[in-house]
C-alpha cells in the first residue's frame, strides 16, 4: 500500500520548507514517515510538529496522502478485511450506496428484495407500479390468497363488494348456492354473501372473474395500503423482473431504509465493496481511518 505520490511529496516539501534540490537529493526514495523523522532529527521544528499531528489532524492527513483521490482511497481499502470495510458503510450517503447495487445481477437483486421485510418490499414496488398496475400484473392465485386471507376483516370485503356490479355477485351466489338471486340490490347480495358458511364463502370469493377480483382487491387495497403486504414476495419480484430493467429497480430501491441497503452492499466481494466505499466523503474517510484503524494509518505513513 503506497500512497507516496508526487502531489503528496510536494505538499510535504512545502510544509517542511525544504528546497526542491535538497528534497530530491536526500529524500527521493524515502517514505513520508522516514522524511519527517530525518528532518525532525535535524531540528526542523515543522517536522517535529508534523510528526505529532499525523495521528490527530484530519485536514493534514487528507492533504498529505491526497485522500480526495479515489485511487488513493481504493489503495487503502483493498488491503482491509470485509469486517473493516463494513465500518465505513453507515457513514456513506445513501445515493452512493445505491450505486453499489449496480454490481449485482438482476436475479441477485430480486433475491435481496424477497429477503426484505414486507413493508420495505411493498414501498419499493409502489415506486415502480401504481396500485392498479399491481393488481393487474399479479397472478390470479395471489388475488385469491389476498381475498381469503384471515388478516382481512370479512365485513370490509362485504362492504367493498357492493362496488362490484350486482349481476356478477348474483352469478357467484347462484353458482355456489344453486339458488336464483333475482331482484336484489347490492346490499342484499353482500349480506347473503356474508351468510355463506366459511368454505362456501371462500369458494365464492374465488369464483369471481379475474376482473371482479382485481376490482375488489384494488378497492380494499386503496383503503388499507398495508394489505398489499399480504402478497407473496416472490410474486412481486417475478412481476418486477418481467416488467422493469435494472436501473429502474435500483432507482426504486432508494426508499428502502439505509440499514437494509448497507446489508445488501456487504454481499459484494471486497474489491467491489472497496470501489463503492471510495465514494465516501473524504473527511469522514480520514476520520474513520485515524480513529478506528490507527494500525492502517501507521502502515500508510511508513510506506
Radius of gyration: 32 Å
Q: State the helicity in percent bands.
A: 55-70%
The largest sheet is: none
| Sequence stretches where pLDDT stays below 50 over 5 or more residues | 1-6
* Strand percentage: under 5%
Tally of separate helices: 23
Quote the average pLDDT. 89
Oligomerization category of the chains in this entry: single chain
Shape: rod-shaped
Classify the secondary structure makeup into a structural class: mainly alpha
The count of DSSP E runs of length 2 or more, i.e. the number of strands, is: 0
How does this structure look, described?
It is built from 23 helices and no strands. It is rod-shaped and about 105 Å long. It is 67% helix and 0% strand.
Set out the fold topology.
Blueprint: H1 6-15, H2 20-27, H3 32-41, H4 45-53, H5 58-64, H6 70-77, H7 82-86, H8 94-99, H9 106-114, H10 118-128, H11 131-137, H12 140-147, H13 154-161, H14 166-177, H15 186-194, H16 198-207, H17 210-223, H18 233-243, H19 246-252, H20 258-265, H21 270-277, H22 282-292, H23 294-301
Entry summary:
The protein is mainly α and 303 residues long. Helix content is 67%, strand content 0%.
Q: What would the keywords be for this entry?
A:
303 residues, mainly alpha, 23 helices, 67% helix, rod-shaped
